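Slide 14.
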Amino acid sequence: MTFTKPLPKFDPRSIPVLGVDAHLSGVPPHELTPQALRQRFRHPPPWTPEHSVEKKFANREPALAAVLIPLVMREELTLLLTERTDNLSTHSGQIAFPGGRTDESDHDAVDTALREADEEIALAREHVEVLGTLPTYVTGTAFIITPVVALVTPGFSLLPNPAEVADVFEVPLAYLMNPAHHRRHQIEFEGVTRQWLSMPYTSPQAHLPKERYIWGATAGMLRNLYRFLSA
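Slide 15: predicted structure.
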C-alpha cells in the first residue's frame, strides 16, 4: 500500500482564508430545538454530505472510530467539545468531539462513542439521548469515523481524563450552524492540494476571552451536520 508523505507541523491559523460562506442561510432557530432534532432524525430528508474523505497524509492502516456530537439542552442548544492534550500521537492540541478508536468489545459505533465520552470526560450514559448517526468521515490519518449525534440532559458532572483532554467547553449550536462562521482554507504540499474549513469561536471568560479554533475533521463533520439540518 502506498502512503503520501506526512504533512509537516504547521499552525492552521497561519493559513489564509480563501472565503467565508456568509451567502448561505443559517439553520433557523426553530430547527435547533430538541424536538425538531428528534423529528429530523426520525424522518431524515434527502441530503448529501459535503465532506466525506480527506486526502491521506499518515502512514498508518485504516481504523474504525466514532465520535459523540453531544448537544446540551440548555436554554439554547450548545455543543460540548474538548481540547486535546499536546502529547497525543494524532490531532494533538486540536478541538475535537469526545470519541476514539473502536474496540473489539464495542457493539457498534454508538457504543464506541458513548464509551469514549465516558472515558475521556466522564459523561455518563444516563445523561445521553442518542438521536442517530451521520455518514462516516475519513480523516487524513486514516480513521473511518462515525459521528453519533445526541442530546445531553444538563446536570452532568464532567471529569476530563488529563492524559487525553486539556479542556472541555460549550459552543452555541446556532453559531456553528451559521455558515457566516464557516471559513475555507487551502494548502499545497508535495504537489497535493489540501482543503479544510475552520469555525473559530471566542469563548466568553470571566477575565480574558479565549479563542477556540475549530478546524479540520471536527469542522468538516459540523459542516455535514449543517447540511443535514438545512436540507
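Speaker note: The chain has one domain: 17-230.
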